[in-house]
Structures are given as structure tokens and as C-alpha cells.
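Appendix B: complex inputs.
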Amino acid sequence: MAETAAVAAAEMTVEMVKASQLGMKALGAGIAVGLTGIGTGLAEMAIGSAAVGATAENKDVFGLVLLLTVIPETIVIFGLVVGLLLLF
Amino acid sequence: MAEVRAGPVPYIYVCTRMRVRKSKLLPREEYMRMLNMGLAEITRFVGESQYKKEVDELATSFGGIDLIEIALSWNLAKEYQNIQKITPGTLKDLTRAYLRRWDIQNVLTILRGKLHGEKKGRIKEVLIPAGELDRVFLDRLLEEPTPERVIEGLKGKSVYPLLSRAMEGGVKEDLLPRVENDLYKQFYADLITYATSGVKGGRQFLEYITLDIDITNIRTMFRFRAESPGEDISGVIIPGGTIPPPAINRLFQIKDRNEFIDSLVPYIRIRPLRELLETLREERSLREIEIDLIKVQLEEMETMAKLNPFSIHPILAYLEMKKYEIFNLRALARGKESGLTPERIRGYLVV
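Resulting structure:
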């Protein structure tokens, strides 16, 4: 088993290693954006439903609750920044 | 099923709406201002507030104190029905179970009205169709010529078995207080059974029921001590609270007020209620005690609503506070009409 791995490593070219690194970066960027997107969604679910409830009772608070609802967007922006840093 | 798919979202939505509605209730300062107003000014004030729609609708048929009274009752019933519509899943069932107390009140009001030969319209004015029995059903009951027929008309409803059993020999005025007690006992027993049946949110609902029963029993004890100390209290005590009924019977026998409070306090788990009981060692009027007990109940419900923000508690807290807003406005209007002094009316307000 160890013998097979050693043979495979010995056979890898520089191009192959670079391509593998690029792939890993892309995977990391994808995970960063995807997971933070899910986190944002979960946070906005609760805030959004409360915001709709508050607006249903008092239309004047629409601007304020819209602002509060999008605050968790920062989480996915952090993910995006990490993703971009990884890729470029 | 819908609520399972939607997760906590409907709960958050409804509880937020209740919080916003609660913030729109009249603050203490408004009541203080209204104490110095005349009846016409109070009517105008009510007509310009959240009761505008009802006042406008009824202004052509009623005037003065009747207009305020009926507009307030209509608003309360409409509000309660609206809340039942917007609450999701099990919260709706819990809210409906809580609102069934209005059925008891409405049925007894109709029976009393019929016994005293009141006109249909007059009885209808004081009904609050917030429970299982809606406006159409209550109208049908009002059409019945005799109290016995009213009871027959309730066949299939939760209050029917007890009423029909108690009134077998005909509806009599002196039977009504006992029947009323039994109906409320059955109501609370049903609530406890439902809350402990494993329903989602049942534990929080049970906390409220226990609080309500405790406050009611303590109020009954003080009322009986003040008005009829020698009477048997066991018939009016509601089982299910933190104070067991045998203990209440024993406590009620204690003549000395200090000793009574000393024996009562260890049964109470809620700190504000314990503190209130400590202040009741000195002689105070029954009305003051009752109002203070209601205030403690509302404060405690508010605390529960903060501890469980997305449960039945915010809804119940709002429903109770709304009830007492109506109660206060009615007391203000009635007090002004009777020519009571602001200080005297102030004593009747839950603020």
C-alpha cells in the first residue's frame, strides 16, 4: 500500500501539483461561501419572520426592519472575501 | 404539518406581532390623563384611538356610555378572533383552549339575562364572542325563548353535559353560582389535561394555568375572608395550582391575618407574589388586594413571555393585557358617568 503511494508521488509532475493546489483552493472557496451562505440564511430566517410580523402591525418600521434583516449578510460577505482571497 | 415544515418561523412571526400590539396598548400616563377628562372627552379619545372603527360603526345606533361599552366589547371580540386566525399550529389550539373561558361567561350571561327577562339586544351588548361559540351561534341562543331551551341549544358543546346535569329540574337563579364554579373547575381541569397530554408547548401553557389558578384561589380566599368568613370555601376552590385544595381549606380556617400570610407564603414559588402577600399583613380593602393580585399576575406573565419569547406566553400576556385595557376603559367611563371622583376611579384601574 505504502509502496504504491510512494510510486504515485514519485510520478507526480510540478504541473499536477499546481493543478491539485488550485483545485483545493477552489474547493475551499466554495465551502467558505456555501457554509456562510447557509449561516446567513438561518440568521435571516428568524429576523425576517420577526420583521414581517412587526411590519404587519406597524408599516412605519419597514425601513428599520429591512436594515436589521440584512445585517447577517455580513457573514456571507466574509465568506466571499475569504473565497476571493483564496482564489486570487 | 405546515408548522413542522416552516420550523420556528410562524412562532416568531406571531409572537412579534403580539409584542408590537402590546406596545400599542394605552400606557399608564394616558389613564392618568383620562381621569381628569369628562365622559364626552373620553368618548372622543376612545373614538380617535384603536377603537375608532367600532365607534364609527356603532355611533349611529348608540351614544354616550353605551357606545363606549359596546365598542370596547366588539373590539375585544374582534381582536381575539383575529389572533386565533393568525396563530399557527398548536399555538392556535392552546389559544382556543384559553379563550373557551369566554364561552362560560357568554352562556351564563345569556341564562341570567333570560331569567331576568332582559331584551335580546341588551344581552347581546355585553356578550364577547371570543371562544368556541361564535356570534352566529350566540345569536341563535339569544333567539331561544326560555333558559331551558338555551341549554338544549348548547347540545354538542363542551359546556352542555355539566349544564344539562345541573339544571335537570329547570333553570333557577340560585343554582347559577354553583354551576358557574363547576364550569370553571371543569374548564381548568380540561386545560390541565390538554397541557399535560404531550402537546408541543404544553409545559409553558401549564405554567400559565398554574399561575392563573393560584391567583384565582388566593383572590377567593381573601374575598371569603372579607365577606363571608364562616362559609365553606371548598366548593369554589379550583384544583391544579401550587396550593393543594386541602391546604387552602386549612389556611382559610386561620383567623389571624399574620398567621394566615405566614402559612400561605411557603406555598408560593413566585417572588413578586410572595412580596405582595407580605404587604397584605396590614388591613387593606378587598378591591385593592384584588387589583394588586391582577397586577402581579400580569407582571409574572410578562416575565414568562420574556423567558419563553416564542411560545404561548407572549400571546397569553397580550390577551390578558388587552382584557384589562378594556376593563380599565370601561371602569373609567362608568366611573365618570356615575360622577365618581378621579381618586375613587383610580382605585379601580389595573395600571
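Chain B has 20 helices and no strands.
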